[in-house]
Specification:
The chain is α+β, with helices and mostly antiparallel strands. The chain has one domain: Jelly Rolls (Sandwich). It has three helices and nine strands. It has a five-stranded antiparallel β-sheet. Strands 3-8-5-6 form a four-stranded antiparallel β-sheet, covered by helices on one side.
Length: 176
């Protein structure tokens, strides 16, 4: 897949201000196809909502990208790192020209801080669970990919080892 690990979105973005409600400004960002929005391991700052287009979410497993999800209109991403303050756990790439709305970390923290403590604890549990599921999925997908490659290689080797195509037997008769 081209574009995996390209420069982050900041160099490519075009911002348009939107208001979520009075006094709150969200940035609308136009993203070209194959542009990286953020990379796994980067500091988590902002959360994004897909307004249009499709965004791929990838995890690096043994040096290769494994697709975790394809996000479409209305999907939110980047929220885990923005809420926990931890590094990004995946890379996001525009699979087609897309528009996303950026929600700043400070806005996310302010909204979560205003929640009931029970809701904040529930969010922490859900984020932890999702993080574990993503890790397990990425590992399982990598194992399945390896098994499929091994099966294909084995099938090719079997075909080459057993002569299915026979050469026609030579005829002793001479042409007249």
């Amino acid at each position: 897949m081209s574009g995996f690990g390209d420069a982050p979105l900041q160099a490519e973005e075009e911002n348009v201000e939107l208001r979520a409600k009075r006094g709150e400004i969200l940035a609308r960002i136009l993203i070209e196809k194959d542009k990286t929005i953020f990379r796994e391991g980067q500091d988590g700052t902002d959360t994004f909502v897909v307004e249009s287009g499709r965004i791929g979410v990838f995890k690096n497993v043994e040096g290769k990208p494994v697709r975790l999800a394809v996000l479409e209109k209305g999907s939110m991403f980047g929220e885990m790192a923005a809420i926990t303050g931890e590094r990004r756990t995946a890379t996001t790439i525009a699979l087609e020209p897309s528009v996303v709305c950026r929600i700043s970390r400070s806005t996310m923290q302010q909204k979560i801080g205003a929640c009931d403590p029970f809701i904040r604890a529930l969010l922490a549990i859900l984020i932890n669970n999702l993080s574990r599921v993503n890790e397990r999925y990425a590992t399982t997908a990598k194992v399945a990919e390896k098994m499929l490659a091994d099966l294909k290689a084995s099938t090719r080797a079997d075909k080459e080892a057993s002569p299915h195509a026979t050469t026609p037997a030579k005829s002793d008769a001479q042409p007249t």
